[in-house]
# Entry
Amino acid sequence: EVQLLESGGALVQPGGSLRLSCVASGFTFNNYAMGWVRQAPGKGLEWVSDISGNGGNTFYADSVRGRFTISRDNSKNTLYLQMNSLRVEDTAVYYCAKEAGSEAYGHLDSWGQGTLVTVSS
Amino acid sequence: DVVLTQSPLSLPVTLGQPASISCRSSQSLVYSDGITYLTWFQQRPGQSPRRLIYKVSNRDSGVPDRFSGSGSGTDFTLKISRVEAEDVGVYYCMQGTRWPLTFGQGTRLEIK
# Structure
């Protein structure tokens, strides 16, 4: 059974930084691309970033490009999202999600439970 | 960016009655490989999203067969043949054909 467990969410001030983690189990992690999707309070889903299975290809939404960095450590079955220069509008629950293959994107077939990031002074 | 427009945004349905949600895309969602990467998700209250349908019409494992997806090009539909209480929640379409990945605004299904 696929399991994705996010952590790292917290209250942070505008301009601050945070690193989210997502530990995966139940599948061969390095065989699958992974992604992050966020959901602001009471709002819809917004794709944030994706990374290929070997970490060589990364993709970002315009709203986070240059501020957020997605990465992975396949030896630890862990996905990361480094978030810098945080803004109030980055406040959201952040979900990690599994893709359908190493270079297969836009599938998001399994999701974690999410971790809440609150950006506020 | 590809804009996905869902309708209706709110859908009150009587138990046992059918329901239908439309998702219209601003561009064709047919990829260069000939496959249309249109996905439907369900988000029950207080839960994470769950994928229901992928590539327009393929049901995920464990999804009841009362859920079905159809459509082509720019127009897609999610249908529930007979709504049950556990179907309450918000439904999103998503396209995976072009970067960035984009979602519809969501349709909130409630029991009338």
Q: What stands out?
A: The interface with chain A takes residues 37, 39, 41, 43, 48-51, 54, 60, 90, 92, 94-97, 99-106 of chain B (CB under 8 Å). Chain B has a mean pLDDT of 97.
